[in-house]
Amino acid sequence: MKKPFLWIPACMISVMLLLAGASFIQAQENTAKEKEFRIERSIPEEGIACIRCHKQEHPGIFADWANSRHANANITCIDCHKADKTDPDVSTEHFKQYEKSDSQWGREQYRVPVAGVVTPKDCSRCHPDEAEQYSRSKHANTLEIIWKIDPWLNKGMNSDFERSAGCFYCHGTVLEKGEDGGLTPETWPNVGVGRLNLDGSKGSCSSCHTRHRFSLMEARKPQACGQCHLGPDHPQIEIYTESKHGAIYDSFGEEYNWTAAPGTWSPGVDYRAPTCASCHMSGAGSTRTTHDVTERLSWEIQAPLTVRPSEFKAFPAKTNWEVEREKMKEICLQCHGDQWVDDHYEKYDKVVEQYNEVYFRPAREMINRLYQEGILDDSKIFDEKLEVEFYELWHHEGRRARMGAAMMAPDYTWWHGFYEVKNRYNEFMKEARHLIETGEKAHKAPDFPNATGSTKRPAQIFGAE
User: CA nearest 145: which of 364, 394, 457?
Assistant: First the structure.
């Protein structure tokens, strides 16, 4: 009589186990798998080989590209990297990949000449307007500018490797190939905005749109500019962070529509307060988008003496400052009233005037007198204290005062700016007058370290000298 009683639960348990097993199998089938990129469109066989090989060899590069707008638009490796076998920037190293026996993609049939360094000339195949605008900007021509005005280069006061690892990492190198056909460590890796490429083009689009995602979001955020625009001499990222614009970005930046299509990113709709790109590059109102960051500038505030951009001798802008100021005002007026914008510019102009007339001109007259009377020796620079004092007066504190005023950061205008300018000016003048009164010559550092850099200007930019 007890047997049926024992048999029924056993059947139920068996059924339950079967159902549980089926559910487990189904759960496994529905679990998210590894993200795949499926080649479903008309990509040439050589392009497929690039994708398959780099997916295996460089999964990080592949993942960036696979999540990019380029991949979404069916733009593959060879669309950007393809070169003619006679091009000066063709990669001889990449040809060796086709001789490998351990890869199904390293075969002769897939062999395509490629350039390892993608340049603005390459990008111009699809982005001609952006490349043309960029080519006339201070960014693209910054190597020429610094070789015309920078005493560290022209006087050879730092070493070549201090330059390549420091100055040239932002400003750009002159790319060169070594005897083995590869790029030299003195010039590569480098994504400087003014890099001179082997194909003759200037700059690097990946300075702002880093490879291989080439993200609009990344280029629109202030951190993209802050990679280079920071520190004691041009602290724009710190100045922006202090400003009301930066404070609003910190609070609401996660809500901004960073991925709006080019030319449609609109203040008040896609973002609440501007970033660097909003003011200097993005379009709004009647002002059109540009990749020439020299536009919209009405003062050259990084120069020793503040001048209009068209009067900057190292690189005169082909613009009218009044026209460009109206463009920038149009950007400001998207969020501010006329009086706010006009009063800001009136205040900014007064800051420029006082820096020029009260501090810089008298200091420059004094240092010129010291050189003329032989108290300072101009054969080198920075090996005498007053040379450093004068340099930092305009290159550090003077820039901070002007840039702080331009971007509405009061602490940088005053405490990091004019307050420090006053102290530097007073110490400079005190020592200068003492030397003039006593007839003493300034103390010269006898062993200025690592002043070994070449003073020869790049022939690729300036021609044979």
Answer: 457
**Does any domain span residue 316?**
no
Whether residue 142 sits in one domain with residue 62: no
| Residue 347: φ, ψ to 5° | -65, -45
The count of domains in the chain is 3
What would the two tokens of residue 447 be? 């062993």
Strand partners, 284: 287
DSSP string covering 343-367? HHHHHHHHHHHHIIIIIIHHHHHHH
Long-range CB contacts (< 8 A, 24+ apart) of 127-132? 129/291, 130/291, 131/291
What is the span of the domain harbouring residue 137? Answer: 116-214
In contact, 359 and 399? CB cutoff 8 Å: no
- Are 71 and 144 in a shared domain? no
Final residue before a domain boundary, out of 159, 184, 214: 214
Mean pLDDT by 10 residues, the chain (465 residues): 48 52 50 65 86 92 94 92 92 82 80 93 96 97 96 96 96 94 93 96 96 95 97 98 98 97 94 97 95 97 98 96 98 97 98 98 98 95 97 98 98 98 98 96 94 95 86
Same domain for 141 and 205?
Answer: yes
Q: Could you give the CA distance from residue 355 to residue 394 in angstroms, rounded to a whole number?
A: 9
Which pair of tokens denotes residue 412? 């940088």
Q: Is residue 145 part of a domain?
A: yes
Distance separating alpha carbons of residues 346 and 359, to the nearest angstrom:
19
The secondary structure element, H or E, covering residue 170 is helix 168-171
pLDDT at residue 107, rounded to an integer: 80
- The reply to whether 187 and 130 lie within a common domain is yes
Q: Could you tell me the CA-to-CA distances from 236 to 219, 227, 233, 315, 402 in Å, in that order? A: 16, 10, 9, 21, 11
